[in-house]
Design a protein that fits this description.
Helix content: 10-25%
Shape: globular
Number of helices: 13
Structural class: alpha/beta
Bound molecules: flavin-adenine dinucleotide
Length: 570
């Protein structure tokens, strides 16, 4: 009996455990296995294999039962997830449905999740702007949250490292607000977008319109071909899964790369319940897992643990990891675990029309669009709100199928759409300030289908966010007017926090264990062999999309952890 026990412990023991297989977990798996560690990747959802498990990827609109739109019954059954633009008939298989995994909205919060191998990496919009020193210095300069324990220079080589492997397209724009990276050729502009870009640089010294940097292979390099990935085909149906591997996902890139080392054990349907803390050893020894199919609780062990379950689920797992040493959650000596959660303010948008260029139109599709880096409060505080916003921008020409004629003339006319005028639009991407009052906690009574406490989310906008929305609408109206756009319409859709899908914080990095949970290596101050490298670790949120930063931080943190293991410090 004792031998049996020892054998089963051995079988369940690895060098490293990674919790979650999305963008950050995929990178942890790739880096750990690449450095020779036997690595167990625990993923709560089902397996999704590259290409074979993308059931809708080759379907035409007429092949869908509901022409690729959401049936009313699905919409009504999923009021939260239906608000996400990427949730449609062709993608429903990759989103968590509202009733499946309940949570408590102490304040309205739309929690958008993808529980499967690959996580949300299958669904994301692939915008990959680096953060800059203006972001990492923000809290210290403006006096909110706590000072980041790192600066841009700490991450810069790791940005380069992950960019080359993931494949990021972009232009070297030479802006200090948005550092350049290792870019594949950028996507193209259309004439109205170029017009806007020229007008803005002529009128403003400090405002720029650039092509978004995006995780698309515009020109495959040997490293991409070695991953089995090919050039992006501009199909713009990425969120169904891409059989070309044209955009970066864990499924197409990091996970198969990790598998090739022979060192990865990927265990889908494994819901991590909590991390096991051994008081005698003074460290974490493994994790408790509920098998999603058998509902049995099991344990797995390792020398180091990377928590990459996506920001709020990482908070949940740590809060649920209680012991007599840590009665309020793992590493939570200061009571701040779950607090200082922040997100991105995506509430505002603006649209307009343009009368010129009626002899031109666009051809084909583009999985990306221009981007306006943050220009407010960059070098000095100039408004009555803290921080600033970036903005997306795009222009297109309305076209309608020409159905005139019969027979041959109808066929010919179908190829000649009737063109309307040009339309333009922009949406806001604002930084929000992390505050202690924006927090997540475990609900004391409600449990999920696995008996794990439900997450109680208490996150809201504040006065700073309202002022920022007002400023974005004023400034963009001025910029649209300067570019000669007409029929300008502004909107504040007052969407709930969460729909930006950039929730961050709760397990923040910092210099001082009294005011933060993680050190500059994303390592828990109080439990040295546990690392958190997803959005939970973010001290503040920047305005840039965060996933590239999670990738870079993960690779950097694994590098540190493995060096520490070799020195026998872990
Ligand atoms: C429509 C959409 C558009 C987006 N656009 C962009 C963009 O343009 N740019 C950008 O930077 N970001 C974008 N994002 C956000 C981006 O997807 C996330 O920031 C990123 O996926 C986070 O990586 P992650 O590894 O932390 O989490 P995920 O990719 O969500 O992976 C987490 C994984 O952990 C698993 N997990 C959770 N709990 C447990 C548990 N208890 N046990 C075991 N496994 C668990 C989940 O099932 C999941 O597979 C977008 C997201 C969506 C949905």
């Amino acid at each position: 009996m004792a031998n049996l026990n020892i054998d089963s412990i051995k079988a369940n023991t690895f060098d490293a455990i990674v919790i979650g297989s999305g963008i950050s977990g995929g990178w942890a798996a790739k880096e750990l296995t690449g450095k020779g560690l036997q690595t167990l990747v625990l993923e709560r959802g089902r397996d999704v294999k590259h290409v074979v498990d993308y059931p809708t990827t080759m379907m035409n609109p007429w092949e869908f039962e509901h022409r690729n739109r959401l049936p009313l019954a699905v919409k009504e059954a999923n009021p939260i997830i239906s608000k996400c633009y990427a949730f449609y008939e062709g993608t429903t298989q990759f989103f968590v449905k509202d009733a499946e995994h309940p949570y408590v909205q102490e304040k309205p919060f739309d929690w958008i999740r993808g529980y499967q191998v690959g996580g949300k990496s299958l669904l994301w919009a692939r915008q990959t702007q680096r953060w800059s020193n203006f972001d990492f210095e923000g809290p210290a300069r403006d006096g909110y949250a706590v000072d980041w324990p790192i600066r841009y220079a700490d991450l810069a080589p790791w940005y380069s490292y992950v960019e080359k492997f993931a494949g990021i397209s972009g232009n070297k724009d030479g802006l200090d607000t948005l550092p350049d990276g290792e870019f594949l050729p950028p996507h193209e502009w259309n004439c109205v977008e170029s017009h806007f870009q020229k007008q803005i640089s002529a009128k403003y010294k400090d405002r720029h319109v650039i092509m978004g940097r995006a995780a698309h292979i515009t020109k495959p390099q040997p490293i991409h071909l070695q991953q089995g990935r090919a050039q992006c085909q501009h199909r713009t149906i990425c969120e169904r899964g891409c059989p070309f591997g044209g955009y970066f996902s864990s499924n197409a890139s990091t996970l198969p790369w990790a598998a090739k080392t022979g060192k990865m054990t990927l265990r889908p349907n494994s819901v991590v319940h909590s991390i096991i803390y051994d008081e005698k050893k003074g460290k974490a020894t493994g994790v408790r897992v509920i098998d999603a199919e058998s509902k049995q609780m099991m344990e797995f062990y390792a020398r180091i643990i990377f928590v990459n379950a996506a920001a709020l689920n990482t908070n949940l797992i740590l809060l649920n990891s209680t012991s007599s040493r840590f009665p309020n959650g793992l590493g939570n000596d200061n009571g701040l675990l779950g607090k200082y959660v922040a997100f991105h303010n995506y509430r505002a948008g603006i649209s307009g029309e343009y009368d010129g260029f009626l002899d031109s139109t666009t051809e084909g599709r583009r999985p990306n669009s221009p981007y306006i880096p943050r220009f407010r409060n960059v070098y000095k505080q100039e408004t009555d709100f803290l921080r600033g916003y970036a903005a997306g921008f795009s222009a297109g020409r309305a076209s309608r199928t020409n159905q005139e004629g019969l027979g041959a003339s109808l066929k010919e006319n179908l190829h000649k759409p009737s063109l309307g005028g040009w339309y333009v639009g922009s949406h806001m991407m604002g930084e929000t300030i992390p505050k202690e009052s924006n927090f997540v906690a475990l609900d004391q009574s409600l449990k999920d289908p696995f008996g794990i406490p439900q997450l109680r989310i208490s996150v809201a906008y504040d006065d700073n966010d309202d002022k920022m929305v007002k400023d974005y609408l004023e400034q963009m109206t001025e910029m649209f007017t300067a570019a000669g756009f007409t029929n300008i319409r502004t909107r504040d859709d007052k969407r709930n926090p969460g729909l930006d899908i950039h929730e961050m914080g709760g397990v923040r990095m910092g210099k001082d264990p009294k005011t933060s949970l993680l050190n500059k290596w994303n390592q828990m101050h109080a439990v040295k062999n546990v690392f958190v490298t997803d959005g939970a670790s973010m001290t503040s949120t920047s305005t840039q999309n965060p996933s590239l930063t999670y990738m870079a931080m993960t690779a950097r943190s694994v590098d540190y952890a493995v060096k520490e293991m070799k020195k026998q410090n872990l």
